[in-house]
Amino acid sequence: MNCPAHSPAAAAPRPLFSYRKYWPSRFGVAPFLPMSRAEMDDLGWDACDVIIVSGDAYVDHPSFGMALIGRLLEAQGFLVGIISQPDWRSADAFRALGRPKLFFGVTAGNMDSMVNRYTADRKPRSDDAYTPDGAPDRRPDRAVVVYAQRCREAYAGVNVVIGSIEASLRRIAHYDYWSDKVRRSVLPDSKADLLIYGSAERAVVELAHRLAAGEPIGGIRDLRGTAFMVARGWLPGDDWVEVDSTVVDAPGPPVRHADPYAATTGSGADCAREAAPREQPISVDFGGLRRRATIDRARTAIRLPAYEQVATDPVLYAHASRVFHLEANPGNARALIQAHGARDVWLNPPPIPLSTAEIDGVFASPFQRRPHPAYGEARIPAFEMIRFSVNIMRGCFGGCTFCSITEHEGRIIQSRSEQSIVREIEEIRDRTPGFTGVISDLGGPTANMYRMACRDPQIESACRRLSCVYPGICANLNTDHAPLVELYRKARSVPGVKKVLIASGLRYDLAVRDPRYVRELVTHHVGGYLKVAPEHTEERPLSYMMKPRIAAWDEFRALFEKYSKEAGKEQYLIPYFIAAHPGTTDEDMLRLALWLKRNQFRLDQVQTFLPTPLALATAMYHSRRNPLRKVAAGSEVVETARSAAERRLHKAFLRYHDPDNWPLLREALRRMGRAELIGNGRQHLVPHYQPPGTGKSVVGAAKASPGSASRPGGSTRGVRRPARPGRID
């Protein structure tokens, strides 16, 4: 049979709201999706079609994935219930709403459960922003696996579908920082029927309708953005070809790296050609039978090295990571296969991004915009952080290697319309208690990628670059900020709105391309402090991060100060930096510390690199190889701070001003031959003297204070930041 998920027609998917509503739509809209049998009885339901099990508290708000997906399914006519933060020690809590007619949708929540529960130093966190009153220990480690297993125990033979960021980032064999080993895909461990990765709307809606029509879940193998287990060697049809990953990206000899900043623009041909696979006839081995095949991308599956191989061979792990990221563009990505023992994990290509009309429809559901009444007066910190903010887009084409956004939401920007965004601002004004007229954020994964895209859809669909802005901004990228400027003006003109702040991460190398945007931002949308993330000052670690050189920060800072002065405002830039990122040496951190002192920055809490599953920087951390280039046994070794002592030192350099860190820094400076930086003058980094009661090396323990850069310790962008929608949460 042919698999429509990989056919050319996949470029024009079925519109999200074109399905005929399922018959229970006659029950109408629930005030809140029910969390108890009593609520179901009040609604007149005898059973739920879908039950979403989540590690987060249920907040009926579009920034919380369980609500976003639950309300979307409700709009399709399905009856959806919520089991929030169940007691995982037995299956009893998973029977609270009865057996779902279609499936359990299982998620760890808006964050990976291990990132949620542990710091970058592998220490348990003392709170949980997604739990009432911030209480810790309300979810298990690796929650997706535990919840899925309990669903199976609760009801034999029930359909189990896993999703959200935890499932997305663990869909193939991956390095797990907390156990310091390569773990299997979450699929065989959870024994789920299906995994939905990335933005889940298309897949979850089609899945629900097909299951409701009587199709068995084991026969649904053509949904983009899904993964499942199959027999070893399974292919969707006789016209399919399986290709070894070394054909796509053959491991080669050591490569001498060019200056990563030498190029400033790229052509459309460069986009399509970069890391392009060999598109010629190849010889394919099928269990001893060899056949000649001309590669048809639509019916080609790339076989990655098996779990057993990548678990023991760091070079193969880095190679698999590189191929995985090369197959991330929905316009040209192929299916991926990875053996786990006698079975295969099969990954269909990524989902087709939503159109503006579709994403508007997703956000148009009748959200209550507050926590479920079952929580009473309890405060849910993550909700408090975002209740006056609006998500205007999703996705990121930056490709920062330490970030998990692109692995989950993709590189293609999906933007809402102005009308949809303004309508949500009006809802906040009219329905959210405590609104004082200030919108706390108007953004998304990045503040200023709204409506940005490749100038040519054909080039975009063929592109295989890992980033549109590194090593320089691609010539084919439309960097016009005019639509965003117009949105800002309309947002702040809404009656009852006094101020619209921008708190999402700003891509300043894009912003300097359009000084009009910087003027608009600085004049109207900065609340005294603007947080930006250069991450480092030195070109070597910046090249491993795929971040712009520090000169771009200097250019943006000059514009920021110029327009602040013109507006008559005293405003400050607050920079974020990462300690212990792969490719960063002690000398790099020393130079960063000197830069901080020279520019009179004193950071409070700092961020230490946290290796999250599937990120390119995590592959560097684990394998000590660079997957940004072809990988071979003799290729470049990436120096990485792995020991607790090294990571502590790198954090100490960022907090050079903290007396508790001075003994550690003095020792390091002497070892590095830089003892001339120890002294009591302005030219010195740390003094000779030690204040009484200090010197305990409590790095980064101080609380954030106004004017100081702060970020939750040990977090990474796209994982720690709360409330990122578009998944089964």
Features:
729 residues, alpha/beta, pyruvate-formate lyase- activating enzyme, 10-stranded mixed β-sheet, 3-stranded parallel β-sheet, 25 helices, 29% helix, 13% strand, globular
General description of the model:
- It is built from 25 helices and 25 strands.
- The chain has a domain at 380-583 and 612-641: pyruvate-formate lyase- activating enzyme.
- The chain starts with 36 loop residues before the first helix and ends in a 58-residue tail after the last helix.
- With 729 residues, the protein is of the alpha/beta class.
- Residues 1-10, 252-268, 274-293 and 699-729 have low confidence and may be disordered.
- Helix content is 29%, strand content 13%.
- The strands form 8 sheets. The protein has a 10-stranded mixed β-sheet with strand order 3-1-4-5-8-9-15-14-13-10, sandwiched between helices.
- Helix 17 (482-492) packs parallel to helix 19 (515-524), helix 19 crosses helix 21 (550-566) and helix 22 runs parallel beside helix 24.
Amino- and carboxy-terminal Cα gap: 33 Å
Counted beta strands: 25
Number of helices: 25
Overall outline: globular
Residue stretches low in confidence (pLDDT < 50, at least 5 long) are: 1-10, 252-268, 274-293, 699-729
- Just name the CATH architecture of the domain at 380-583 and 612-641: Alpha-Beta Horseshoe
Oligomer: single chain
CATH top-level class of the domain at 380-583 and 612-641: Alpha Beta
> Helix fraction?
25-40%
**Portion in strands:** 5-15%
Q: What spatial order of strands do you see in the largest sheet?
A: 3-1-4-5-8-9-15-14-13-10
Q: What is the structural class?
A: alpha/beta
Largest sheet: 10 strands, mixed
